[in-house]
Known about the structure:
Layout: H1 10-20, H2 26-42, H3 52-64, H4 70-89, H5 118-125, H6 130-142, H7 146-150, E1 157-158, E2 163-166, E3 175-178, H8 181-193, H9 212-226, H10 233-246, H11 251-258, H12 264-284
Antiparallel strand pairs: 1-2, 2-3
Amino acid sequence: MYGVILPMDRELILAKYLRDKRKLAQITKNSYCQSIQNLYRFCPHELRKITHKDIIAWLNYLRERKSCTPATIRARLSAVKSFFTYLTEEEIIAYNPLIGLKGPKLGTKSPPTLPTDAIFYLREATIENLRLGTLIEVLFATGVRVTELINIKLQDIYWDENAILITIGKRKSQRFVFFTDICRCLMEEYIESRQDDCPYLFINHHNKQLTRQGVFYLLKNIAKTCIDTNIYPHLFRHSLAAILIEMGAQLQEVADILGHKNLNNVRIYAQFSSKARKKVYDRYF
Length: 285
């Protein structure tokens, strides 16, 4: 028997859904929660009264009023689909209004990378800021995700191999990433300059573990001073992949370095690297 779900109960149901999804990484749970709450704000009905038309209207709102990209809309839709499938399985609602609903098609475009000479200008701008200079160098040299970056501990650094053991990665898998001698020198100097007992490589001004928000804030502010372009952690990851492909690395090698299980996740870099070389060729022939 399906119960009547009142608006005030929606947050409780969302909280239970997130608790029951134990296998999801916390960052995925946070993303799902944001997407579902976005729908809640747009559609303040009882869950059992949300219709297919309501979902369509919400998607149109994201596209037309919020100017969300197709990728963002697909991500939000995926989260809401998972939630309503759960509601149906738990017999909280009798009918899933998202059945048969597909997200917008994604156009094929080149992954965003750092602007030309950006690393040079970022290095120059952070000469007096050892922590930020080291952070930028680690991102550029290793291509780690931001969650992986902030969870690097000093004990995870293998100095003899110029390697870092990533213990908190996507799908909870472990892998080694490698860094350059330039990166090594900066890390050593940065660590020696610290006077704290925090186990993490990157800390904030309170000698606590640096947060995701802290990393985004630091990068955004330094970019304004030297390259006038918004940069974010994943941009360094894209850039490393593109550089490796340009230098002749095989797809499997790039996938291993970045921690991708699926080769399709790096195939796009090879595709656009080939297109770039073709443009150069066409310039002369």
